[in-house]
Design brief:
63% of the residues lie in helices and 2% in strands. The chain has 387 residues and is mainly α. The protein is built from 15 helices and two strands. It is globular and about 70 Å long. The protein has a two-stranded antiparallel sheet with strand order 1-2. Strand 1 and strand 2 form a beta hairpin. Bound molecules: Phenylacetyl coenzyme A (FAQ). Phenylacetyl coenzyme A binds next to helix 4, helix 8 and helix 11.
Amino acid sequence: MAAAHRVAAIAVSGSPGRRDVLQNLAAVTGCCNTGGMERQEVPGASGLLSEVAAAEAELRAAADRDRGGDGAGVAAGDELAAYFDEVVGADQKIEPRDWMPEAYRKGLVRQIAQHAHSEIIGMQPEGNWLSRAPSLARKAILLAKVQDEAGHGLYLYAAAETLGVSRAELFDKLLSGRQKYSSIFNYPTLTWADVGAIGWLVDGAAIVNQVPLCRCSYGPYARAMIRICKEESFHQRQGFDLLYTLARGTDEQRAMAQDAVDRWWYPSLAMFGPPDAESTHSTQSMAWKIKRFSNDELRQKFVDMTAQQAEVLGLNLPDEALGYDQPSGHWRYTQPDFGELMRVISGDGPCNRQRIEHRRRAHDDGAWVRDSAAAYAAKQRTRKAAA
Ligand code: FAQ
């Protein structure tokens, strides 16, 4: 494992060159806003985009501020740990060359890799419908969305690589089952309406979970998340739009939309992870400001947002206990079956085997592309060295 990232780089923390780089990175993430594109209002969606914009402004401010290092480099041990705590405590960003506790680095690799794998495996359920989209426009939208997911995977693998792991190592861990991907992608897409339900519910859950990650303490992850969240917002809106159209179509189309919502609701609630009392990583992740909210807090936020959107869609969420609780200002809801979540996570979901086999085949089929790119890069290096 590369040790370079562990070398203290506090010496450069206040330098203008470093600040320019961080400012530029923060600016690049701001180029793909899709706000205001929808035909009908999606309650709660613009609020999430405002939170992303606020996180982006915070990132720029953090890049512009001196983080308090004396600029002369710091020795080792306790001083480094104290400096790390100070940076995190002050809501500044830890950058790849900064010293960080080994458990912080490992925890980030675990979460970012799992997130990256989810984006890549997550292309499969909707990819299943690309060749059967009902119109050219729907096909173009779906193609764009599925390609975005590949892009998200790439940003995230790149963020993980800054922590001293290689992409090949991460792929190997995914294919051998040593790293996870989100439980949600082990469910099948049975009808065209499932594409809408994934966009509305799965991307909706993803964005509620991911907006706070834009304020994650690790700079590369936070910057990747800003761009991802803006794109997820488009994904959620396209799903909402698709279901909105079906819900106002023929009886069969409306029934198909309702059936898809019935099947995807509880698996979407389970995406937020086990209940807080059973979450192994939350306490430490929140102390390090990797996670900003607990699994249950985010699940509740998602229910509050989605219950209102369901009313606009005119579709029912399959929960008889669902109801607005005036005193708390939140919606009451039935928890998902966490036993099912654990079974799916441990490999026993409806499509686990199929998803990994497909990914392995795609990886093997792409070997010649990786080999060609590596051979070309080697040739360029030799030419450059000889020039
Ligand atoms: N699936 O201690 P916690 C998307 C595992 S992207 C599988 O609470 P933590 C975009 C967890 O890893 C969706 N495993 O864990 C899209 C841990 O096991 P470990 C992915 C799960 O990390 C849309 C154990 O259970 N999003 O949808 C799940 O604090 C449409 C104990 O759990 C992210 O990855 C689960 N649902 O909280 C793409 C967001 N839940 O590692 C295509 C970033 C828990 O010790 C189409 N990640 N586990 O072996 C996170 O926010 C967190 O990692 C959580 C879990 C909230 C997922």
